[in-house]
TrEMBL record:
Intracellular or extracellular location(s): Nucleus, Nucleolus
The protein's name in its UniProt record: H/ACA ribonucleoprotein complex subunit 2
Presence of keyword Repressor: no
GO molecular function term, any single one: RNA binding
PANTHER family (UniProt xref): RIBOSOMAL PROTEIN L7AE FAMILY MEMBER (PTHR23105)
InterPro entries to which the protein is assigned, alphabetical: eL8/uL1-like (IPR050257), H/ACA_rnp_Nhp2-like (IPR002415), Ribosomal_eL30-like_sf (IPR029064), Ribosomal_eL8/eL30/eS12/Gad45 (IPR004038), Ribosomal_eL8/Nhp2 (IPR018492)
Species in which this protein is naturally found: Strigops habroptila (Kakapo)
Described purpose of this protein according to its UniProt entry: Required for ribosome biogenesis. Part of a complex which catalyzes pseudouridylation of rRNA. This involves the isomerization of uridine such that the ribose is subsequently attached to C5, instead of the normal N1. Pseudouridine ('psi') residues may serve to stabilize the conformation of rRNAs. Common component of the spliceosome and rRNA processing machinery.
Source lineage: Eukaryota, Metazoa, Chordata, Craniata, Vertebrata
Boundaries of every Ribosomal protein eL8/eL30/eS12/Gadd45 domain copy: 43-134
Coiled-coil stretches: none
One BP term from GO: snRNA pseudouridine synthesis
Keywords of this entry: Nucleus, Ribonucleoprotein, Ribosome biogenesis, RNA-binding, rRNA processing
Family from the record: Belongs to the eukaryotic ribosomal protein eL8 family.
């Protein structure tokens, strides 16, 4: 019985088409600034996948908030389609106070999938590590170049 439900769920998931980057932009919050470009979004997802293999990510509002307060360094990636925005609207302010780079990506489900989870994730912090340092440095440089919101 359980296998039948899993098979149905997998077939249903395959039947739903992936939304393109442009379609995902329709569901953004008004506070989703600075938004990563399509190219930077792909680089961030790639970096998150590599960091997840090395267990160098912090996932979720509570965990990311705790480690920002402890002074941990890294790139904070936020999902731009999280509702309600009150859940995580304080995270960018915390990042700005501590001079941590942050960027928004359009989809929380894609963010969770990049981290190796089936669940959507609204906030991830990528910590630096020597295994993927080159990718991390590229992402860091591009995220820092994004204009901060007014």
């Amino acid at each position: 019985m359980a296998r039948e439900k899993q098979a149905e769920a997998a077939a249903e998931a395959e039947g739903t088409p992936e939304r393109s980057y442009r379609e995902q932009l329709d569901f953004l919050n008004p506070i989703a600034r600075p938004l990563a470009s399509r190219k930077l979004t792909r680089k961030l997802y790639k970096c998150i996948r590599k960091a997840a293999k090395q267990k160098q990510i912090r996932r979720g509002v509570k965990e990311v908030q705790k480690f920002i307060n402890k002074g941990e360094k890294g790139i904070t990636v936020l999902a731009g389609d999280t509702q309600p925005i009150d859940v995580y609207c304080h995270i960018p302010i915390m990042c700005e106070d501590r001079s941590l780079p942050y960027a928004y990506v359009p989809s929380k489900s894609d963010l969770g999938a990049a981290a190796g989870s089936k669940r959507p994730t609204c906030v991830i912090m990528i910590k630096p590590h020597e295994e993927y340092q080159e990718t991390y440095d590229e992402c860091l440089e591009e995220v820092e170049a994004l204009p901060l919101p007014l």
